[in-house]
Structure formats: structure tokens, C-alpha cells
Design brief:
globular, single chain, disordered N terminus, alpha/beta, 274 residues
């Protein structure tokens, strides 16, 4: 019986369909390797604020750091460090380095943070955290010694609550809160309620109260206003508070199944302080 063989007669090896296709592909791609590679050029960034030069915030910072006697300790949750639109770097750019100290973490023990422990034990230290036991900063500032230190926790409300209640050091200072009805200007991030403020806004108001200088608040808020303006000009949307969305039937996310979280959302709708 004769056997038909397709392929090279010299080698006697048949060329199957896979090998034939591979040969055609190699020939077809041969010219592509010679094309020039288009390099990705990064936008020029400002060395101070680390933002693209077209939306640099430096013109909105004070020319010189503000002169304040009050020292801020910002206790920052690690998740905040990776956020692009953070307010703490804006705050730090407005103040002297020794007046705005940032500590990142979830747990702060006395052995690992002896300096923070000493600060928390100082009678002139306050911690800004709202609650039934918190005094109004405006009233306390009239009788509190100066200079003072204020501790502010930077994170979402659930993150701040976790840090406050799971670190015994933070229950040593006098607990204070801001008595204000102003709405947050940090409109590119969703807040729980209409009166919730960003870390920068809390710090600005607190410093203005302690230093008895309203100009401090205006100066610190200026870069935040510029940041939000730039973002809105480049496609960002205004973020209403969760309270506003719920009350106006605009909340488009699934309602939580957790009864505790569902109860908190009901309290937001009913204007109950939580």
C-alpha cells in the first residue's frame, strides 16, 4: 500500500497545520518588532505638594508656616495614608513641622510610643472626639491653659472609633468636640452627615478657637477649597452626605443586612445624633 506524505521530501517529516500557522505568524509579525516603542511620559509634578503642575496647590498655601502655639498630633489610620485626595498633607503644609506631628497606626502602646504617652498624660492636652462626655472646645478654650496640644484621629468614622476605644492612652486627655453647624467644604468625598467635617476642617476650626484668630481657619481652608475646585473642573462629582442621600431617596447602594448598621442609617434619616 502506498502512503501519501505531505511536506519536505528531503527531511521526510510531515509539516502539520500548527507548524504551518506558526510559520505564517512569524513572518507576519516580523515587521512589528521594528516599530518604535512609544514611551509613556509622566506629567511634571510639583516637588512640594506632589500634584501635577497644572493643578499645583502651592499658591494656595501660606507663604510662611502659620505661627501658632497649639501643637497638633494627627493619629492617622493606615488606610488614609494610601488615599489620593487626603487633607492631612494640606494641613501639614500650612503649619510648622513641630506643630503638626503625624503618627500612623491602629494601636498605640506606651512602650512603643513613649512621647505620645507623655503627651496624653499632660494636663494641657485635649483629644478632639465627639461624644456624650465631650466638652465644647469653644467653652473650654476660655479657661484652658496655653500653649496646648490637641490630638485628632484621621480616618473614617468607624476607623476613628476603633482607634479611640482600643487605645487606652486616648482616654487620658480631656475629650472635646466642636459645636458647629457648618457643612463640610470637602465635597469630593462622602460624609456620614451634613455636619461631619474633614480632619483639615476640624484642625482649622480648633486652631482658630485656641489661638483666638479666625484668620487661621480661612488660611488653612484655602488649599482644601482649591483642591475641590480643581477636582470638580476635571470631572469629579459633588458628593452629598449619606444623610442627605437617604432623606431624599437618592441612596443607590444596597441597604446593609447588618442590623446595627441598618439602625444607624435609620437614625441618620430621623435626625437623631449618633
Amino acid at each position: 500500500m502506498d502512503t501519501a506524505v505531505t511536506g519536505s521530501e528531503e527531511s521526510g517529516v510531515a509539516e502539520g497545520p500548527v507548524e504551518a500557522a506558526a510559520g505564517r505568524e512569524d513572518g507576519g509579525c516580523e515587521g512589528l518588532w521594528e516599530l518604535p516603542v512609544e514611551r509613556c511620559v509622566r506629567r511634571a509634578e510639583c516637588g512640594r505638594c506632589s500634584r501635577p503642575q497644572k493643578v499645583c496647590l502651592c499658591p494656595f498655601f501660606p507663604v510662611h508656616p502659620l505661627k501658632v502655639s497649639t501643637c497638633l498630633y494627627i493619629i492617622q489610620h493606615p488606610a488614609e495614608e494610601s488615599r489620593v485626595l487626603r487633607t492631612v498633607p494640606l494641613l501639614a503644609a500650612c503649619l510648622p513641622g513641630d506643630k503638626c506631628k503625624i503618627l500612623i497606626g491602629r494601636r498605640f502602646g506606651e512602650d512603643r510610643y513613649p512621647e505620645l504617652a507623655a503627651v496624653c498624660r499632660n494636663s494641657s492636652t485635649l483629644i478632639l472626639y465627639p461624644g456624650a462626655e465631650a466638652a465644647n472646645l469653644e467653652e473650654l478654650a476660655l479657661i484652658f491653659p496655653s500653649p496646648s496640644t490637641i490630638i485628632i484621629i484621621d480616618g473614617t468614622w468607624s476607623q476613628a472609633k476603633d482607634i479611640f476605644y482600643k487605645n487606652s492612652l486616648f482616654r487620658l486627655p480631656k475629650q472635646v468636640q466642636l459645636k458647629t453647624s457648618i457643612s463640610s467644604q470637602y465635597v469630593i468625598r462622602t460624609q456620614p452627615t451634613n455636619t461631619c467635617l474633614s480632619t483639615l476642617e476640624c484642625a482649622a476650626i480648633a486652631l482658630a478657637i485656641m489661638e483666638k484668630n479666625d484668620g487661621i481657619q480661612e488660611t488653612i481652608l484655602r488649599p482644601l477649597q482649591a483642591l475641590c475646585s480643581f477636582q470638580l473642573q476635571h470631572g469629579a462629582q459633588i458628593h452629598h452626605s449619606k444623610e442627605h442621600l437617604l432623606k431624599n431617596g437618592l441612596y443607590d447602594k444596597p441597604m446593609p443586612k447588618n442590623k446595627r448598621k441598618l439602625r444607624r442609617m435609620e437614625l441618620l434619616v430621623n435626625n437623631v445624633k449618633i
